[in-house]
Design a protein that fits this description.
Layout: H1 5-17, H2 20-26, H3 31-45, H4 61-84, E1 93-98, H5 100-104, H6 107-117, E2 122-127, H7 130-138, E3 144-148, E4 157-164, E5 166-170, E6 182-183, E7 192-194, H8 200-211, E8 220-221, H9 225-233, E9 238-242, H10 247-251, E10 256-259, E11 266-272, H11 276-288
Parallel strand pairs: 1-2, 1-3, 6-10, 7-8, 7-9
Antiparallel strand pairs: 3-11, 4-11, 5-9, 5-10
Length: 315
């Protein structure tokens, strides 16, 4: 018998993901099948590639020598299959993370675009904050992450998706001006309604308040943008939410903005580890990105332009 790619990928993913169960989920099979493949490989080469006395996924000395080659072989296989294969028959699984703002706006358009290219792909979207999802990407538990770009450098491929304007909003009933837009001084007199504390939006709110010389005292924290808008509309305080998406509240006079001076848009991006499928999905994300109702959008639509991952600007 010869060593097979299925045996190699079993070893590789047990090591990368740190366990047999995680590898089985990744490869859409059972733990017993993963164990059998690794045992067969070790029997054929006459050596142990995993250290059974150490934590799950720990490589033996010989395993550490060959794991880089295993990874290179699997990436080469993926490139060959992607180049020669038909996307219509691709049956892989895509685990990707995205933030709430994307889910509320252009997720349906993105899923439609993905299914037009890969009609048989299994999609597993997860909604969370970027600070929780990027570590999962680096651990190969996610294939792609879509969300605000953090200030730190990342060891992955980054596709810029565009910016989104945020603004401080509050019910006109709580402003001394009696309904007109407020100014930054009034923020210090209002309760603050903030998004999840480990989110990029929360960090941006804190930075904005610090720049204005205002204190951050006992805010109400909520992990739903729509709930924040409703709390602000009910007069519970001021919140920092996307201007275009909640434009209907402004047009109806249910919320007004507080002017804190010019601010740069919050930049969004797609993050992935540069494999052919993720590269294509990132290109589709670039083409479908549209945060507002008839507002922010790229000139191209998802039905136009290339889908080979070469179109968007890579950082």
């Amino acid at each position: 018998m010869q060593v097979t790619l299925k045996q190699i990928e079993a070893v590789y993913w047990v090591h990368v993901l740190g366990g047999f169960m995680a590898a089985a989920r990744r490869l859409n099979t059972s733990q017993s099948t993963i164990s059998k493949r690794i045992a067969e490989l070790e029997l054929q080469v006459g050596l142990e590639v995993l250290d059974r006395q150490a934590p799950p996924g720990t490589l033996s000395l010989k395993g550490r020598e060959i794991i880089a080659d295993f990874g290179a072989m699997l990436r080469l296989r993926d490139r060959i299959e992607f180049t020669l294969g038909d996307t219509q028959s691709y049956t892989g699984r895509l685990r990707f993370g995205l933030t709430e703002m994307i889910a509320l706006t252009w997720l349906p358009k993105l899923l439609t675009a993905i299914k037009s290219v890969y009609p048989r792909i299994a999609l597993e979207p997860r909604i969370d904050v970027v600070s929780n999802m990027l570590p999962q990407l680096m651990e190969h538990r996610l294939d792609l992450v879509l969300g605000p770009r953090p200030s730190t450098e990342l060891d992955c491929t980054v596709v810029e998706l565009g910016g989104l304007d945020y603004a401080w909003m509050v019910s006109p009933q709580v402003l001394k001006s009696g309904g007109s837009d407020g100014d930054a001084r009034q923020l210090g007199q209002l309760s603050l309604l903030t998004y999840a504390e480990n989110s990029q939006l929360h960090h941006r709110m804190r930075a904005a308040l610090s720049h204005l010389g205002l204190d951050w005292e006992k805010p109400i924290t909520c992990n739903s943008l729509k709930a924040l808008a409703e709390l602000a509309r009910a007069g519970m305080g001021a919140t920092y939410i996307p201007r275009d998406y909640f434009k209907q509240y402004l047009d109806a006079g249910e919320l007004v903005t507080i002017d804190t001076g010019p601010e740069a848009p919050l930049q969004y991006a797609a993050f992935h580890l540069d494999n052919p499928v993720s590269r294509t999905i990132a290109a589709l994300a670039y083409q479908t990105c549209d945060f507002a109702f008839g507002g922010h959008a790229h000139p191209s639509s998802y039905g136009d332009g290339p889908t080979d991952g070469t179109a968007p600007p890579y950082a």
